[in-house]
Design a protein that fits this description.
This protein has 222 residues and is of the alpha+beta class. The chain has 6 helices and 6 strands. 49% of the residues lie in helices and 16% in strands.
C-alpha cells in the first residue's frame, strides 16, 4: 500500500503533498521509476496499436495506388504516418504520455529526482500564481519604505514597509554605509503594516548574510 501511495503521490507536485511524506526517499524513487516505466510502456503500446488501426482505416485509399510503383506506395505510406503522428488527436495525446513517461523514467534513473505529471505541475503553478496575485492585491498598493529614527537607545532605525520582509536576527542589514541587525518586528498602520526595529550591529558580529537595503526595493517585486 505504501508503494502504491508513493506512486500516486509521485504524480503530484510537491506543493500538493500537504502533510504526506514518503516512508523513505528510496521507496519514493522506486515507485516513481516503476510508474514512469509503466507510463512509457503503456504509451508506446497504445501508440503502436493506434497506428495499426489508423493505417487500416486508410487501407482503401492506399489500395488505389496498389498497382503503382513502389516509390508511390512508400510516399502514401509516409503521408499516412505523418498524419497519424502529427495531426491525429489521440496519437498526439499518446505521444505526450509516452514522452513524459520517458522523461520521468530517465530523470529518476539518472539523478534520483521525482518529476510530477507535467499537466498537474502546470495547474499547480497556475493556481499558485493566481493565489499570489490575490495575496498581492489584498496587501494594497506598493509604496516605498519609510525609514524612521529609533528611540535613541537600543533601537537605531524603524523601517515601516508595505510588504513583509524575509529578514531574520541572523542577517546583517547594510544601509548608508552602516550595519544593522533586526531586533524585532511589530504591526504598523496601513499602508505600511510591517515595521522592523533595527539596532546597530556590534563590531564583533560575524557577517553571514549581508543585505544591501534600499527603501525603494519593495517597489521592485521579485
Amino acid at each position: 500500500m505504501a508503494f502504491l501511495t508513493a506512486m500516486f503521490m509521485g504524480l503530484l507536485p510537491r506543493s500538493w503533498w500537504g502533510k504526506w511524506q514518503p516512508d523513505s526517499t528510496v521507496t519514493l524513487r522506486h515507485a516513481a521509476l516503476a510508474e514512469g516505466a509503466l507510463q512509457l510502456g503503456v504509451g508506446m503500446v497504445l501508440l503502436a496499436w493506434g497506428y495499426v488501426l489508423f493505417f487500416a482505416m486508410r487501407a482503401q485509399q492506399l489500395s488505389a495506388v496498389a498497382n503503382t510503383n513502389e516509390g508511390t506506395q512508400l510516399y502514401y505510406s509516409f503521408l499516412v504516418t505523418v498524419e497519424y503522428l502529427l495531426v491525429h488527436p489521440s496519437s498526439l495525446l499518446l505521444e505526450y504520455v509516452t514522452l513524459e513517461g520517458a522523461v520521468r523514467t530517465l530523470t529518476v534513473w539518472t539523478s534520483g529526482e521525482v518529476v510530477p505529471n507535467w499537466g498537474l505541475r502546470l495547474l499547480a503553478w497556475m493556481t499558485a500564481s493566481a493565489a499570489g496575485r490575490r495575496a498581492e492585491a489584498a496587501m494594497g498598493a506598493r509604496v516605498a519604505d519609510a525609514v524612521l529614527p529609533g528611540d535613541g537607545k537600543e533601537i537605531a532605525l524603524r523601517i515601516a514597509s508595505c510588504r513583509p520582509k524575509t529578514w531574520t536576527p541572523a542577517m546583517t542589514i547594510s544601509f548608508r554605509d552602516e550595519l544593522f541587525e533586526v531586533v524585532r518586528s511589530e504591526e504598523g498602520a496601513p499602508p505600511r503594516r510591517h515595521v522592523y526595529l533595527l539596532r546597530k550591529s556590534p563590531p564583533s558580529k560575524i557577517v553571514r548574510g549581508l543585505h544591501a537595503y534600499d527603501p525603494e526595493e519593495v517597489l521592485r517585486p521579485q
